Amino acid sequence: MLDKLKATPAKTLGLVSALLALLAVYVPGLPQEAILGVVATALLGGYQAQKIENRKTEEALEETPDLEGFDRQLVLLLKENAALRNPSTSSGSTQETPKVADVDLDTGTFQVTR
After folding, report:
1. What kind and span of H or E run contains 85?
2. Which end of the chain is more exposed for a tag (fewer CB within 10 A), N or C?
């Protein structure tokens, strides 16, 4: 369970913030100012986590500079799928980027070549 929480820091901080805010409102006698201060700090942490996620997205997009639009998204999805199926593969892999051709968005078909 902790691995899943560490893998998604933005979601984790959002959940913690929401739970703390609910506690501050619905549990009488708790120091609301202190709890809301912690919520504000957690939200700032969520912002920092989102910046990290944005940086990871930018790095992934830099891996396919010659592709645009749906072709780029498809290649990135294929790479992510392959990485999830084979966790020993590193993100800095020297494997050749798959080429996507004949993309038909209406029918959802495409061809992938290496």
Report:
1. helix 69-85
2. N
Unique residue bearing structure tokens 């495409």: 110
Structural Rg of the chain based on CA atoms: 21
Beta strands in 1-114 (DSSP E): 99-104, 109-113
Structure tokens at 10: 């933005």
70 within 8 A of 105, measured Cβ to Cβ: yes
Q: Would the pTM count as exceeding 0.85?
A: no
> Count of alpha carbons within 13 Å of 1, Cβ hemisphere only?
0
> DSSP secondary structure string, 16-39?
HHHHHHHHHHHSTTS-HHHHHHHH
Check if the beta carbon of residue 63 is closer than 8 Å to that of residue 97. Answer: yes
Residue found by looking up tokens 């799928």 in the block: 81
Q: How far apart are CA 101 and CA 111, in angstroms?
A: 5
